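Backbone geometry tokens:
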Amino acid sequence: MVSVVIIALLAAMATPSFVAMMRDRRVVRAGLLLADTYREARSRTLSRGIAVMVRWRAGAGGKGTIEMREAVVAPGQGVAATCQSVGAWTTGSVVTREISSFDFAGPTYELANLLFLTESNASTPFADICFSPNGVTCATYLENGVCNRLAGVPRFDVTNTLTTMKRTVFIPPNGVARLQL
């Protein structure tokens, strides 16, 4: 009987730390999802020889959406969109298509607060990072803005709103995004 009581006490003491650890893991998974999206975009660009763009749009409460689009190759016409094609990357465009999108407002990432910071360390609610087949990465922080060559390292700060644990996703000019633990 004493053994059962001791085991129950130990289980009761471990439960809060286990729950906190699981919540932190969800925040880390949000960071991994961001890093994987940028790495996949770069990989698609290099393997398919077409421009691929990743768009971030901040939403309410530190949430937002991430979308990956690629240029469409029209039969007999070649690639219609490049990183410099202003307006070609909008939803509904016939010269680009959506590859994937994710909304962080769901219950899985309820504790993840996402903040995108430009190379100059300014937060922005919008970011397009485009990877071109010749290895050049460019960015714009204005909708329908001109994509300029990426010279610095923009990043995402992913913060657990409950524990304030923060993870950072770096997007260097070579496009190989990294999650800092």
Summary: Residues 132 and 163 are 39 Å apart (CA to CA). Residues 2-48 form the longest helix (47 residues). The chain has a mean pLDDT of 86. The longest strand covers residues 64-71.
